[in-house]
Amino acid sequence: MAAYKPVVVQACPKLGERITQDTLYWRGYKTPVQIKEFGAINKIDFSPVPPYNYAVTASSRIHIYGRYSQEPIKTFSRFRHAAYCATYRDDGRLLAAGSEDGSICLFDVSGKAPLRQFEGHTKPVHLVGFLSDKYRVFSGGDDYSSNLWDIPSATEIISYSEHTDYVRCGCASKVNADVFITGSYDHTVKLFDARTKSSVMTIEHGHPVESVLLFPSGGLLVSAGGRYVKVWDVLKGGQLLVSLKNHHKTVTCLCLNSSGQRLLSGSLDRHVKIYSTTSYKVVHSFNYATSILSLALSPEDETIVVGMTNGVLNVKHRKPEEKNENLQKKRQPAYRTYVKGRTYMPKQEDFCVSKPVKRVLRKYDNLLRSFQSSKALDAVLEPPIMLHTPEVTVAVMQELHRRGTLRSALAGRDEKQVNLLLTFVARRVIEPRFTPVLVTVADMITDIYQPVVGQSAIVDKQFLKLQQAVGKEIDYQEELLEVLGMMDTLFATFTKKRDTSLEENKSNGVTEIIETNRNY
Questions:
Q1: DSSP letter string, 217-230
Q2: Helix axes 435-449, 457-519, angle to 10 degrees
Q3: Gap between the Cα atoms of 134 and 137, Å rounded
Q4: CA nearest 160: which of 180, 140, 146?
Q5: 208-221 pLDDT, tens digit each
Q6: What mean pLDDT is predicted for residues 98-124?
Q7: Which residues lie in coiled coils (predicted)?
């Protein structure tokens, strides 16, 4: 009796992920460290000066973390209600934050009690920031106002009431100490100059604005709201340069890397997208467990910190670069040690001892070997095989069809098994590598189970899905045939023109020869 030959599974090439320099760079971050906070994390801000600690605002507390610490090294908890938007000053010595009761607190990083407290907003303050001169603070609240405060005297300088909805985000210009920008849920972004009594520019984003960002040069402005990230040219009066729609849910936060060449955006769809600021194409993305509310990148790009709605702080550090010159590698055996004797050819007087190789068969091969067709088909219809290696399922079906036992293996199944079988066929029948086999399988299933159509709503639904999949594929094929006919016509026209031009050139050449002979 001949030995059993295992089922040959057709190997199909897989399209690998495109590896770029950005992919290698952003993959260079370690496995994240997760820290649980007391509530949703609404703001993360890095200190601009070494050692680059970062402030995390969640619930009614502000925690200061060291770059590599998993426990807060300092806590500000002098808030009666929720705290919002803790932001460092450019020198890293002061920290300002808003609160639910409408007050703004100014802290010394080395102290505990507030140095200043600004009162003027009547509703929660979600936006606080420092102007680049370091002596003024701007704020925005749910009372629709944007205020400017003087730090030394703790007084209000000016108040703007131009927004018609909550003011939730903003930033200050690093080029001009009098310019700051606010974004509101009234779909607008406004640019204010502290020397004027009204806004100097209004930009219509089109959705409630969740985050704004100004490039270090001060010429480009990025706004995020809804599913859109939009880039505006401030120097051209707020002209829209590009609109990005790469997220599936609301974009909540933005940040730039240290060089300004990469823009990061976080969203409620649990993704962080990284864009190139030259082409504005996504060069990499990170996936997280839950929706993202805040995002920050350290000044040296060594650490990415993400705050989520469930109060989890996700911290990723870059892997340190290994210095090969300082590492003493253990000496490995020479290559010839491993290949020694492999090319030896036995002589005539040598006695060769062969080691029997035990061949391990798969479950479906063992069942096919014992002619259990139905059980072999059941073995390859398990979800892990169907989802990850559908070529195995199709190969077994093809082998059963070759043996002539496919119809008997498909028959006699209950509602659950027929539903599983039809789900697989409807999903994979449109793939060109599986179509020849699965069309035959679909034909047999329809022929076998046609008498019971209408008795099960689940099976009927799968039959309709199969019909829709086949109908769409037929429509695509018809459209492709039409395109092919158009291309054939174009190619035929080009060929005729080329033949005509060649004939004209030949005739012109003959005419010229005749004329030259006459002249002689």
A1: TSSEEEEEETTEEE
A2: 140
A3: 8
A4: 146
A5: 999 999 999 989 99
A6: 92
A7: none
The values of phi and psi at residue 307, to 5°, are -105, 135
Confidence class for position 497, pLDDT limits 50, 70, 90? low
Answer yes or no: is pLDDT of 519 > 60: no
pLDDT at 512: 46
Strands 228-233 and 239-244: antiparallel
Q: Tell me the three-class secondary structure of 498-517, residue by residue.
A: HHHHHHHHHHHHHHHHHHHH
Q: Using the predicted structure, report yes or no on whether residue 314 has a pLDDT greater than 80.
A: yes
HSE-CB for 281 with a 13 A CA cutoff: 3
Are 45 and 62 in contact, with CB atoms under 8 Å apart?
A: no
Question: Counting Cβ atoms within 10 Å, is residue 228 exposed (0-12), middle (13-18) or buried (19+)?
Answer: middle
- d(C-alpha 132, C-alpha 177), whole Å: 5
Tokens of 215: 């490039």
CB-neighbour burial class of residue 402 (10 A; exposed 0-12, middle 13-18, buried 19+): exposed
Cβ contacts of residue 57 below 8 Å, gap of 6+?
A: 41, 42, 43, 44, 83, 84, 85, 86, 97
User: Distances from the Cα of 84 to the Cαs of 61, 102, 412, in angstroms?
Assistant: 9, 10, 64
Of 219, 230, 126, 232, the C-alpha closest to 173 is: 219
pLDDT band with cut points at 50, 70 and 90 for residue 15:
low
Q: CA 255 from chain center: how many Å?
A: 16
H or E stretch including 25?
A: helix 21-26
